[in-house]
Amino acid sequence: MTVITRTARITGRVQGVAYRAWVRGQAEKKGLQGWVRNCDDGSVMALFHGPEPDVDAMITACWSGPGAASVRNVDCASAAPPTEAGFHILR
Fold this sequence. Notes:
Elements: E1 3-13, H1 19-29, E2 33-38, E3 44-51, H2 52-61, E4 70-78, E5 87-89
Parallel strand pairs: 2-5
Antiparallel strand pairs: 1-3, 1-4, 2-3
Keywords: Hydrolase
GO molecular function: acylphosphatase activity
Organism: Pseudooceanicola sediminis
């Protein structure tokens, strides 16, 4: 099993709609490590670390988000693994 780490920058209506909490819940269900945070430009940035199929599924899920979200784009890139265990919402 290949373990990978990816960042995802999600744009659209993704702040003020519980997007970060939704991401954390979905990532925890998949057993992923990492974090999610709001960015000053109105986007949301996330880091996902885990088995490749689970990270890929999480990135695909980011296109949906919670019901009030309206995702315009999800840009991904490879990244270094997180330094802390678990999945966290950063401020």
